Amino acid sequence: MNDTIAAISTALGVGAISIVRLSGKEAIEIVNNCFKGKDLTKVESHTINYGYIVDKDETIDEVLVSVMRAPRTYTTEDVVEINCHGGIISTKRILETMLIHGARLAEPGEFTKKAFLNGRIDLVKSEAVMDIIDSKSEEANKLALSQLSGTTSNMIKDFREKLKQLLASIEVNIDYPEYYDIEVVTKEKIDKEVKKMKEDLQKVIQESKNSNLIKEGIKTVIIGRPNVGKSSILNKLLDQDKAIVTDIAGTTRDIVEGEIYLDGILLNIIDTAGIRKADDVVEKIGVEKSLSMITDADLVIVVLNNNEELVPEDIEILEKTKDKQRIIVINKNDLTKKLNLDSIKLENVVETNTNTTEGIESLKQKIIELFQLETIKSKDYTYLTNARQISLAKKAYQSLKDAEESLHNDLPIDMVEMDLKETFDLLGEIIGETYSEEILDHLFANFCVGK
Question: Residue 197 in contact with residue 400, Cβ under 8 Å?
């Protein structure tokens, strides 16, 4: 933590500028030893200074150097950013020069890790930094910015404050029962407050399912028999000829992927090989791959042909997807109807065709309705946004349930207090009030080196 670290903070390649960033108590001195211009140790904080980075008598590049003194910086340490020309050679030479003069190459995410360990940001905000970088849509970016602004952290802090007050009241009543002016915390009152917190936390966990849709998009698999129009539907959704379309059954032998946005939410669409008994080895592998993709899909679009009668393969597909979030698409509704579904009870059925622009709109609208995309967009984005946060929240919820059961079973108040303290600690882990080095190393290992 006391080392002065350095890294390239911009994408390495040819561009207008590159930035080499340093953080630590020796950052200004190290850069100053390689800088031809003003004495950086004497310039005011948050200033930009023109000059050259040199290595002995050799000039490496013409630069602008930003000097930012602690504690008003990203890491709360002295931070220096060297803005150089965006060539690969000059950028690497500048970094190498900084390392020669005493800096250490930063580990992935180490700048943000320093910001967290120095109390500049909490763990939720730290994760939001990488989410902003990885944002795949405008809605995902809004979600990450909401986290970075502290809305989710403040929500967790509010939960912990209520628990802290309840625990303090319990402690006082246990330790000082003889004081009559202390409010008596009865089991009924504890039960009421625990029930309310449990309901609120359950709502947060439930609504946080939306965060994965916003961040990662909806993994959508199009599945059906050969020649029912799966590839045509993909092409119409993407508005491009991505999948090959022919009258020959089994044309699609491997998955074809594409992306579109519906109401600002990303749809990762996968067109699969037609499901049928195949003798061809390659097609057979494609069919097996198609069926395996159903498991991981957020949405399965099952395509049936309006112009053909229901066959055993259709029934098999409907059976395999019955427990999934799905939409039944009766395609080719511009042709004579031969498909009879009267004997099968199905939900989320739409009719469509790929010959007109309007033909695919009913499918898009059904997806919007099924995932309540308009509702998600109108939310305030106070979500838990990753598996770590949601897992800890679920454990905290279970601890609240345990406390509630202890109360109902008339167990000693000390047992109830233990469950409430566990809830308090688990919520603290979400924002990083308590943490382990192993968790931090794993979390920041996925960051960019210069962030």
Answer: yes
Among 377, 371, 332, residue whose Cα is nearest residue 348: 371
For tokens 């009766």, the residue is: 330
* pLDDT at residue 357, rounded to an integer: 65
96: left (phi over 0), alpha (psi -120 to 50) or beta: alpha
Question: For the chain, how big is the Rg over CA atoms in Å?
Answer: 29
Omega prior to 71 cis, within 30 of 0: yes
The more confident residue out of 433 and 375 is 433
Residue given tokens 């020309």 in the structure block: 85
Residues 33-61 have a mean pLDDT of 96
Question: Which residues fall within 8 angstroms of residue 319, CB to CB, at 6 or more apart?
Answer: none
CATH number at residue 414: 1.20.120.430
**What is the tens place of the pLDDT at every residue in 291-336?**
667 888 889 999 898 888 888 888 888 888 888 899 998 988 888 8
How many domains does the structure of the chain reveal? Answer: 3
Is 296 a member of any domain?
A: yes
| Residues sharing a CB contact under 8 Å with residue 292, sequence separation 6 or more, in sequence order | none
Domain assignment present for 450: no
Which residues are paired to 414 by β-bridges?
A: none
Do 201 and 241 have their domain in common? no
pLDDT confidence bin for 180, thresholds 50/70/90 = very low
Dist. CA 360–CA 332, nearest whole Å: 11
Strand partners, 58: 55
Question: Which comes out higher in pLDDT, residue 54 or 250?
Answer: 54
Q: How far is Cα 318 from Cα 327, in angstroms, rounded to an integer? A: 11
Pairwise CA distance, residues 378 & 139, whole Å: 10
355 dihedral zone (left: phi>0; alpha: psi -120 to 50; beta)? alpha
Q: Does residue 443 lie in a domain region?
A: no
Torsion on CA atoms 132, 135, 141, 144, rounded to nearest 10: -50
Question: According to the model, what pLDDT value does residue 355 have?
Answer: 78
What pLDDT, on the 0 to 100 scale, is given for residue 379? Answer: 62
Task: Specify the pTM.
Answer: 0.73
Run of H or E including 188: helix 187-207
Both 395 and 371 in one domain: the answer is: no
